[in-house]
Specification:
binds pyridoxal-5'-phosphate; globular; 380 residues; alpha/beta
Length: 380
């Protein structure tokens, strides 16, 4: 038995998934449209209009989930005759599978140690004769330099696709996420900010690309895909989008609670959201300082998990260190490898309360061998 402070065990467990339930009355109202003639198509079209307005773009195409939206976009945009997709290694764990389904080989780039994001400087040296496309991915906190990466793509004549799943609500200094590159991909999975239970969508400024993607999701353009979003999921996504401001307000409170409660625990740092612009404050990322924190990152995660707090290692192992059967370009990425040992994603989202955060801080202070309550010093 590991000794955890009394009352700090989480039952039911709390996780890093948002799991916000759409408002039931709103959901019912949208679902009432479904049985009408043409109801399903109208619901999906309404969802696409609403999400296009949310991102301030002319076109939104709904797809079955974020994964297949990425595959469809890579296939639509990759330069024919070339086979490399440049992407970060410190990213979504299924991204190499996405590349494989699109028939591309990942060439993994470094990230910036301060922002955990790829930058024009980490990407530029990897662009070459073989580059079919740049897959730019936003980090879990803040945004990448979307304008800079899009400009790099234009200069080097490489199409740029954004995975903006973790930045659906964010605004960069150059504008709202959703408008950069050729297209941007989002997810409506229950674990993400906007909950359609499943689902995804693509935003773009290009009418031709929107038409192609709409055909591709429905077996067209030789895609070999059925990647349509169902009307049920469109209804859930609409109801969730209606409630997004309340969700963001909750996330902001939770994130601030973590920041103040963990301020007094030596060796841990809550990664702040940049205060410029708009942030959803969904993810709570904690950095471990190995010189001051007594446990390894994985040991810390294990102990949290034992207490029912389903914290996770942040993007570990990085993709280039995972056993991979697909064609890929081998990489040595020292910055990524060091960063992959340091970060924890803490429980967050709709089901986590301020009281839970207080219990988590107490639990972590206990791991560090501090006297109970010592973590309160900084905010009391
Ligand atoms: C979850 C996620 C995806 C995939 O979205 P699904 O809708 O679950 O297929 C893609 N990229 C990132 C960064 C993600 O976190």
């Amino acid at each position: 038995m590991r000794d955890t402070p009394a009352g700090a065990a989480f039952d039911p467990p709390i996780s890093t998934s948002n799991l916000v339930p759409p408002d039931r009355a709103l959901l019912r109202a949208y679902l009432d449209l479904l049985p009408e003639p043409g109801g399903e198509a109208r619901l999906v079209a309404l969802m696409e209009r609403r999400f296009a307005a949310f991102h301030d773009v002319p076109h939104c195409v709904a797809l079955v989930n974020g994964f297949w939206a990425l595959v469809a976009c890579l296939r639509a945009l990759a330069i024919p005759g070339r086979d490399e997709v440049v992407m970060p290694s410190l990213t979504y764990r299924r991204m190499a599978d996405v590349a494989a389904w699109a028939g591309l080989r990942p060439r993994f780039c470094e990230v910036d140690a301060a922002t955990l994001a790829m930058t024009p400087a980490t990407v530029a040296p990897l662009l070459g004769e073989g580059t079919a496309i740049l897959l730019a991915v936003h980090p879990v906190v803040g945004t990448c330099d979307a304008a800079g990466l899009a400009a790099l793509g234009r200069r080097r004549r490489v199409p740029v696709l954004f995975d903006a799943v973790e930045s659906a609500y964010e605004v960069t200094p150059e504008g709202r996420v959703g408008r950069f590159g050729e297209a941007e991909v989002f997810s409506l999975h229950a674990s993400k900010l906007v909950n359609g239970f499943e689902g995804g969508y693509v935003t773009t400024l290009r009418p031709g690309l929107a038409r192609r993607l709409a055909a591709m999701r429905d077996h067209g353009e030789g895609s070999g895909l059925n990647a349509r979003l169902s009307g049920l999921h469109a209804a859930a996504a609409l109801a969730s989008l209606d409630g997004i401001e309340a969700q963001v307000a909750h996330n902001r409170t939770i994130h601030a609670a973590y920041a103040s409660r963990l301020a007094g625990v030596p060796g841990l740092r809550v990664v702040p959201f940049p205060d410029a612009g708009r942030s959803a404050f969904k993810n709570v990322l904690v950095e471990i300082d190995p010189a001051r924190w007594p446990l390894t990152r994985d040991g810390t995660v294990r102990r949290l998990n034992d207490a029912g707090a389903l914290a996770r290692a942040h993007y570990a192992p990085p993709l280039h260190r995972k056993p991979m059967t697909y064609p890929h370009v081998p990489a040595r990425l020292p910055v990524t490898e060091a960063l992959a040992e340091r970060f924890i994603l803490m429980p967050c989202g709709h089901r986590v309360s301020v009281a839970d955060v207080a219990s988590l801080a107490e639990l972590l202070a206990g791991f560090a061998g501090l006297p109970r309550g010592a973590e309160r010093a900084a905010w009391a």
